[in-house]
Fold each of these.
Amino acid sequence: MFDVIKKVIITEKSAAKNDKGVYVFEIVKNANKIDVKNAIQQIYGVKVATVKTVTLPSKSRMGRSRLPVMKRHACRKAIVTLKGNKTIDVNVFSKEEKEKSRKEKVEKKKNIKV
């Protein structure tokens, strides 16, 4: 289930909605609403009322002097509303993700042959 959700999006706009039980997550491009709902319920242990998905297009922006145009990759986000007045600790996902990435780094170092 961790492969469906990439990270929690914390902006001023999304943080204002957290009190109402609305959270924003960045998800993989091929995930559907049911996958996102099941992942949130399994990770945080809360009931999900609605899931809205948005596909953000890639954008061009001005770079530095040598790089005139840079592209930001397209991404997809999910806006999740919880049932009732439930709230979740969004740092739980980041802690588990950090532990997972730390274990992967240790395994890679062990597998390196000199």
Note: Residues 44 and 102 are 21 Å apart (CA to CA).
Amino acid sequence: MSETERRGSTKDRFIEKVFAFLTRSLYREVDVYAPVPIPSGSPQLNVANHFGGVSDALLLLGVLPDRPGIVARDVIWNVPVVGRLMNWIGAIPVHKPEDHNSPTSNDEMFASCYGALDNAGNILIFPEGVTRNEPSIATVKTGAARIAIGARAHGVAGIQIVPLGIHYEDKAALRSRVFINVGVPLDLDELVAEQTPAATEVTASNRAAVDALTDDIDVALRRAAPDFKDWSEAGRLATGASIALRGQLDDPASEVPFGLRNRLANTLADLPDKQRAKICASVQDYQSDLDAIGTTDAVLHAHLRTGGFLRTLVWQLIIGICLLPFVAVGIAVNVIPFLLVKAVGRLRVAPSMHSTIKPVVAALAFGITWGIVIWRAIAAFGWAAGGVAFILLPVYLAAVVLFVERFTLMLRAYRRWRAPGDPQTFSEQIAERRTAVVEAVLGS
């Protein structure tokens, strides 16, 4: 059966509907942005970042107009049910030496890929070769380039290499949002003509041609996919993008479209270090002010006027006053565990050791203290009192944490507002900080 016939078969249409249903069920919103239409009618090699494991393949099978054959590690076929599923959807196994502790041959895999690309077919490969937990692209390996060049050498003409950037709002959450950024396709024939002398034979064994195409794929994929220095930068650039875009919405209090935000954040990630640092610093200052008064940019931007701003501050003060009785009891009960955890934080050990010791000490200290309080309540007033204590103790602790954090943030904001030489009101200051974020983003 030819590739065109396969795509039109009842089985293939059924598979597409199954994956489209799964995608709609698992994700609240899937936004696909393609500034250039996804190629149709020509051989297509899709290259995508690999941040979400199996979810990446599921998403792309659910949204791409023509179902691709997925190139995947052969160890997946060792799982009985999954192996059958991979065969059912027409996946192509790739053999890696590290999975077999011995040399392996991928001649069959390459032949399958060439066959899939023939007659306007298409395949999907994750050229990083591994699932990433960092918000950046790993080194792109040569497999995708070797497949494309090898297929061309075997007579497949007009191959388009399509970069696909998958942006997850939260890849571990159910019903979160996803943005798929379709990059500008690379025309393999044009690239080969530009980069290789006319008399040179271009095959998958031509290392120079493979390396040059791998570099082109790397650049294209980084433009389409998330590629940030670290998670802190990723979060601040995304926040900065949302703040800058909010003023362009018909309803500033509404949510900034996820895809629009991530496209801008991706553009910001390509800026020089100095400009990215300026954006991140301005976002951090503005976010600290928002945290101090317990509001969000959407609310603030919609109501940034003296009356509305003062109402927000007054409301925060009312909440703080209502919490005071709980805070007083919480401090009295938890002062010893607090001091123990504070002392552990001052130990001169590696950060990784702190992250191990602190939770253990906190669990023991608070657990023992609460156990004693519950036991005393039962001894003095009975089991009902013990049950009430069991319920209220976490509430008292939460009240202390909330009050201390909010008080600290508001005090910090007040000190910045009352800094010498700064006659602004706090509302003017926070408005100015927001403007600084917008200017840093849009002026980049």
Note: Residues 374 and 390 are 6 Å apart (CA to CA).
